Amino acid sequence: xxxxxxxxxxxxxxxxxxxxxFKLSNFSELALFLTAPCSAMAYHHDxxxxxxxxxxxxxxxxxxxxxxxxxxFVKTYPAHQNRVSAITFCLTSEWVISTxxxxxxxxxxxxSGSMLGRHYFTSWASCLQYDYETxxxxxxxxxxxxxxxxxxxxxxxxxTTLKGHEGSITSLWWDPVQRLLFSGASDHSIIMWDIGGxxxxxxxxxxxxxKVQAICYIQLTRQLVSCSADxxxxxxxxxISREEAPQWLESDSCQKCEQPFFWNIKQMWDTKxxxxxxxxxxxxxxxxxxxxxxxxxxxxxxxxxxxxxxxxSCFESIKDEDRTSLATFHEGKHNISHMSxxxxxxxxxxxxxxxxxxxxxxxxVVGCSLATGFSSR
Length: 377
Fold this sequence. Notes:
One of its GO terms (cellular component) is early endosome. The chain is mainly β.
């Protein structure tokens, strides 16, 4: 896996759209200046339309010429009252759907430019995914929950709310084929939600040391690519039967040695002992004390690529082959804030707050060029 980087001087680009077309070692650019700093962008390849969200809550639409040498302004959408955090465009319904820091998701008609509907949350809406067939919108927010909405012409209904993260939702990816939703969060973890199975099955993936900024699921090879703010890049093997992490059990005493926890005043008084601190085994979920969970182990089949706390009995049950990693980890060597993949060619683009854009050849680790019949250069 190798990368090429393009650096920007960062001067005066806060309110500028910069369209960069990479052609081997040289590139050309088009620039248009906006009225406010850019905060989100969506590009529709077939219609060559760009939607740019801004810090003032507006979304501006541009159309790119067929030779990519000109951008024409189309219209401005007053979508939000605060910073736009995510945008998606649906060509069949001619909707531009967006989320913002005004705690709402909005959908507007691109034909008339009028507002069709809004739905408000209790926290900033941070990211968005949309299923074009069912008109389901997945909205992640800063409280750590994901809301599934059914969007209609002038209204919407809440289907369900997904709760599992302990930090704000920073990235979402929806796979319409397998009906899987992947979410990354500031708690450094990724959760796979089996929406199509309707069984509430979730898989936890822990392999990053910082918040997960971007994720992409490659349905063809059953691999998940994730990037974190510290530059970590992980490629997860999802083409295996993984185990679901257990729910943590609650108890007033250790479920191994039966010693009381520090809030169990009655048992502490009866046994004349000091209460102990409560921990949880990541493999079985039981509430245990520190003396009964002195061991640490990785357990990749359950998503734990790093060593985590397990009770002594579970540690003995984990074999050496159970600790074999089910993901590969790579160093991006720059702060990654956004990522996009060209799955057909196995190329990935990352950009960060260090003003660097990197192009990655991912074919050695994801193998999607072989799967699609594309020969590497």
